[in-house]
Amino acid sequence: MIYVYLHPINLNTRMKLFVFLCILLLSQSCSNGKDNKLIAKNLTIYFDQKEEVDKANLLGKFWQTKGLVGQRPQSLKLTRSEGTFYIHLIISEEFKGSELVFDEKKLLLDLQRELDTTIFKGEKGCQILICDADFKPIVNINK
Question: DSSP letter at 98?
């Protein structure tokens, strides 16, 4: 039998090691989700799961080919819950939830239907959510 003698680690070294591991774990947990984004010209698409990168890429191409990317930077977020995809659109700061008029709602529903038949076909579909700057939903156009 071979015995290996490990020199005991002094308290100062243990404390440094503990702090290093805590920082490492904290930075890893804080970075989750922040790297999940695609950037093209004035469009940034965030997504929760790495498996959704293909759908996010298709959404970005769709957004650009339909001329939906404007002069100002725009952010979308793609999430998935119980098989349904949600497209979070950040609306201008001046928007109030009650300001969504019939014509705008119809255009968004038409856009949603087109997304359902192109990008999200074979899935449970998608829903467009009007959100604030933190991607918190203000209006679900389907309700």
Answer: G
| pLDDT surpassing 90 at residue 99 | no
What burial letters (b/e) apply to 46-76, b meaning 16+ CB within 10 Å? bbbeeebeebbeebbeebeeeeebeeeebbb
- Determine the pLDDT at residue 90: 87
SS3 percent helix, strand, coil of the chain, rounded to 5, is: 40, 25, 35
> Within its chain, how far is the Cα of 32 from the centroid?
11
Return d(Cα 49, Cα 102) in angstroms, integer: 33
At 42, give phi and psi (nearest 5°).
-100, 20
Confidence tier at 94 by pLDDT (50, 70, 90):
low
> Residues 59, 119: contact at Cβ < 8 Å?
yes
Q: What is the DSSP string of 11-53?
A: HHHHHHHHHHHHHHHHHHHHHTTTT-EEEETTEEEEESSGGGH
Q: Which domains does the chain have, with CATH numbers?
A: 37-140 (3.30.300)
